[in-house]
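Show me any protein, fold above all:
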Amino acid sequence: MLYIANLAIFAQEAAQAPWRSNIEAIKNICEIGGILVGGLWTYLNYFRGRIYKSRLEPTVTCRAEMGATCCCLVVFMQVKCAGSAQVFIDRHGTGLMLYGQLPRAGNVSEPKEVRWAQTFSAVNIFPNHVWVEAGEVISEQVMIELPNPPAHAYKVRVKLNSGEYSWTTITTVNVDHDLTKESNNGNGQPVPNGPQ
């Protein structure tokens, strides 16, 4: 009797076992598929977008120098291609824009933001470069003759265009400070020539 009861239980479990194992197999397949789809989605949205997207990192520094007959602005530009794909430089819209400081009327009694001229001078930059290779760093230095007398300060804006993307970096230079530092190092002695 006990044998028949065990046999009945075994038969009942055997009848349910294919359904249970089939459902568990389908569940495992769905979990594995979900993990694979999630991993692929992460790759496409994060890694591929970060690595293969066109990315440039421009920097700009500048200083004012007094020549024998004029004042000049020396601008050093550097661009690094941070992505894994080369980036073509579009000549249209790529350049250096120079904005002069507008003078304030009367004495300024409290700190205020400097106002810049709406018009600017434009300079062509990187004329010998059609593209920037992945991981490549390109640089260029230009000297711009300033009007006489120059503005007290200038805003230098470097913009690079590549199709639908553009990158911009901005810096400012205090011409009065740079020229004073160049002619006098603070001890009444001229500053020696050479890099500073």
